[in-house]
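Lab notebook: predicted structure, single chain.

Context: the supervisor wants predicted structures on file for every construct in the current expression panel, including those that have not yet been purified. This is the next one on the list. No modifications to the sequence; it matches the entry in the shared construct table.
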Amino acid sequence: MGGITPILFQRDGTLTREGKEVSRDEISPKGSWLSLDVLITKRVFDYVDHILNLPSLEWVQSTAAGFDNPLFVEMAKKGMRLTNSDAQAVAISEFVLGSVLAEFQNPTARLQKQAEKKWEGIGFREIAGTTWMIVGIGNIGNEVAKRARAFDAHIIGVKRTGESPEAHETIRPADMKARLPECDIVVFTSPLNKETHHMGDAAFFAAMKKDATFVNIGRGGLVNETELISALDNGTPAVAILDVFETEPLPETSPLWDHRRVRVTPHSSPKTDGTQLRALDLFLENLAAFVKGAPLRNEVPSATIIGSAA
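Prediction complete. Output recorded below exactly as produced.
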């Protein structure tokens, strides 16, 4: 892109411009990309330190979907414009559908029959006709809804304002517990803030159907893990598919690892090549818009970010 000189953050934490190392005092960038390869390394805090101490910086494109981390609040307080990412929505939605299908169809039992050379069919449950509640239905939730609808599921979207284009019906958070007894699959896709913290609690799980499947791909703090374990021990929900946790990495001492009703994955639902390519496309699209002074896609108002942490 003409007229732009990139400053690269290297694996050893140094900064380079046109192949030469530069100090923070020598640069004055206006935009920054908090890319996936930075987010998943221990160098992310060094990178963020640069961001927070560059007075010239006006805009940060994140590869994350949410801005609940306190570091983003600090950026917002400094007046930086922040744009989040919907690049992971396709990957996460396929993860959700694949995980639910695995629970319903039990491929492990099929493989066991094959290994034993036994001609015995394994019965399975259909997604068709099930009811899904997607809590916090936004970019990711709508992609989940789109795929579940293709299996002839009924979708209830939970959203504070507006309507979901992919849900059959959209309800408000105050009404969701009353509708839980209808739902076969409940998926958390919400951001984490003071309203959603531990919304998955004992009362929430007690209201679910006995054979319901619970999925959390939002944030670990949405769920009170102690109360979830108690609920699972009591048989409601029937199974919990968890890709996010209050403490990550999940400690080896956590009872979630060994619980027979829990499926643990290490915050890996977005990790596909497609996510990385879509994230790059989004950054380049917003970079071009930023240079032109045009609106940025997925910009989140600073007041919203600051207010969610209050």
